[in-house]
Amino acid sequence: MRIAILEDDPTQKLLLTTWLREAGNDVHEFALTRELQRFAARESVDLYLLDWMIPDISGKDFLRWLRQERRDDTPAIFVTSLDSEDDIVGGLAEGADDFIVKPVSQRVLMSRIETVLRRSKPRDVAEQIITIGPYVVDPTRKSIKIHDEKIDLTEKEFELAVFLFRNIGRLVSRGHMLESVWGRNPDLATRTVDTHISRVRGKLKLRPENGFRLVPTYNFGYRLERVDPADVESVEA
Fold this sequence. Notes:
Elements: E1 2-6, H1 10-22, E2 26-30, H2 33-42, E3 47-50, H3 59-69, E4 76-80, H4 85-93, E5 98-101, H5 106-120, H6 123-126, E6 130-132, E7 135-138, E8 143-146, E9 149-150, H7 155-165, E10 171-173, H8 174-182, H9 191-203, E11 212-217, E12 221-226, H10 229-236
Parallel strand pairs: 1-2, 1-3, 3-4, 4-5
Antiparallel strand pairs: 6-7, 7-8, 8-9, 10-12, 11-12
Helix pairs in contact: 7-8, 7-9
């Protein structure tokens, strides 16, 4: 996963980051909310871990901005020392998916993250084999079929396709895709993503008649959207 942490306490931030990276996640750390806002305006993540009391803008205000102004429903968990009933209710009311009171243990944190992400994922893409419309994706065999026909994909094309199918309906940034598929490699440009997106779109025939549309968003990334093939047929008729 790609996770963004908002935490101004260096010790706490190091602890959370260490736990998450040990579990194989990519972590982006921020001590100030304005820095996180700039990042969120151009990048997507799988999860936000937010402290409440931050020197410039509170984590609660960031979440309100994310939900209301950005229309972003990425899962978010508060990890904070605030523990009153009003604080917890207020955080959840702003759109938080969970509320963890410090100090937090590694086991509790990872368990709560797993629970939140399990709730946020569509059931059909959380399974080992993904079957959506005419597509059957088998991560174990690294194969994708459309209408029972196996598609010839390179390793990176396959990984990118799986990433897209697991994020149907989400606007994901080029940086997010680059990091998830290729890892943190400073020598790779974001145009690598565009090139592979073009190949995946063509090979998998991601077109409305097959139930999907791959939509680019200028200066940000892409969204794989479901389309009802019946609607396409009615328009053409």
